[in-house]
From TrEMBL:
Protein family: Belongs to the beta-class carbonic anhydrase family.
Name of the featured protein: Carbonic anhydrase
Xref: Pfam families: Pro_CA
PANTHER family xref list: CARBONIC ANHYDRASE (PTHR11002)
Gene assigned in the entry: can
Sorted UniProt keywords: Lyase, Metal-binding, Zinc
Its biological purpose: Reversible hydration of carbon dioxide.
Native species: Actibacterium lipolyticum
Binding site for Zn(2+): C40, D42, H96, C99
EC number(s) stated in the UniProt entry for this protein: 4.2.1.1
GO BP annotation list: carbon utilization
Length: 205
């Protein structure tokens, strides 16, 4: 019920103010989050909660299955604001095991609009079909695909003109890929961080 939600909000706000007088007045003047989080819309993976961060500490963009479409104006606007206005230097693409969006992308059933949205994951599944076949079961295959989707997301964020321009200007932004386990509440680093100099190194190889 919406009434319960409003009651809980009033309790939370009173508690926070009692704990730290002037908390909201201070936070209202400005935000200076250290992280930009791009994650899945899944209700079980709220950025602030799983990363142990308070309001004001993480700028967030979420969509179904944390897909990075290079022409998604919503994501690009948030990314540009994060980098240029909030001067955030740590960007996180976070996927999660047991992702319903990733599962939908592996099924033959029609899912309406979601099939358009999830198309990059279907494409990844085709590209990595041989690797995915090595996994023991369907759940492991989907979790592997969720990891691949994060790595691909990091690459796509890194290739946006926003990041390319920032790196060219000598700004030390790093883009990290993490995956969250619904079963244990832990975030894991997928070791696919891209930072300044990455593309020069690749070009030199
Ligand atoms: Zn998900």
């Amino acid at each position: 019920m919406i009434g319960d939600l409003l009651d809980r909000n009033a309790q939370w706000s009173d508690h926070k103010n009692a704990e730290e007088p002037g908390y909201f007045a201070r936070l209202a003047t400005r935000q200076s989050p250290e992280f930009f989080w791009i994650g899945c819309s899944d209700s079980r993976v709220p950025a602030n909660v799983v990363a142990g961060l308070d309001p004001g500490e993480v700028f967030v963009h979420r969509n179904v299955a944390n897909v990075i479409h290079s022409s998604d104006m919503n994501m690009l606007s948030a990314l540009e604001f994060a980098v240029e206005a909030l001067t955030i230097r740590e960007i996180i693409v976070c996927g999660h095991y047991g992702c319903g969006g990733v599962k939908a992308a592996t099924e033959d059933l029609p899912h309406g609009l979601a099939d358009h949205w999830l198309e990059p994951i279907r494409r990844l599944a085709r590209s990595y079909a041989v690797d995915l076949a090595q996994e023991d079961n369907e759940e492991a295959r989907r979790d592997k695909l969720a990891e691949l989707n994060v790595v691909e997301g990091v690459r796509r964020v890194s290739e946006t003109p926003i990041l390319q321009r920032a790196w060219k200007d000598g700004i030390g932004i790093r883009v990290h890929g993490l995956i969250y386990g619904l079963k244990d509440g832990r975030l894991r680093d997928l070791d696919c961080t891209v930072g300044p100099g990455h593309f020069q190194k690749e070009a030199a190889q």
